[in-house]
Specification:
InterPro entries: TPD52. The protein has 149 residues and is mainly alpha-helical. The chain has helices at residues 2-8, 19-24, 33-70, 75-91, 94-148. It has two domains: 31-92; 94-149.
């Protein structure tokens, strides 16, 4: 049974075929003259179709530009619309919402902290002013008393 199995297997390993060797191979010798003529005709037809499709695409692109101009759509408007849409899409993401909430909360905390600092500074200035007013009143009362002596 092993001898039958060995007979089915090739003794040489399979060789990989690379694209360059296939591209450089000359298959024209395998083709009949009739097949060559058919392939040449098909090649010409495909090249003509590609040229036609390019012309049609170019005409459609020009028509598109004309329609956009008539509608007042220009590159700047399209950029604005794309930016607005992208900004809206970004704002609806979960990451943006969480970041916005976190920064908003941090802003509220910072505002409260600055308010507390401002209140403390105002109170300190108020205390200093009342102290200086008291000093000023005492000073003005004591000056005439000193002059009388």
């Amino acid at each position: 049974m092993e001898t039958q199995a060995q007979g089915l297997l090739e003794s040489e390993p399979l060789q990989g075929v690379d694209d360059d060797s296939v591209a450089s191979a000359d298959f024209s010798s395998m083709l009949s003259e009739e097949e060559k003529e058919e392939l040449k005709a098909e090649l010409v037809q495909l090249e003509d179709e590609i040229t036609t499709l390019r012309q049609v695409l170019s005409a459609k692109e020009r028509h598109l530009v004309e329609i956009k101009q008539k509608l007042g759509m220009n590159l700047m408007n399209e950029l604005k619309q794309n930016f607005s849409k992208s900004w809206h899409d970004m704002q609806t993401t979960t990451a943006y919402k969480k970041t916005h909430e976190t920064l908003s909360h941090a802003g509220q905390k910072a505002t409260a902290a600055f308010s507390n600092v401002g209140t403390a500074i105002s109170k300190k200035f108020g205390d200093m002013r009342s102290h200086s007013i008291g000093y000023s009143i005492r000073h003005s009362i004591s000056m005439p008393a000193m002059r009388r002596k």
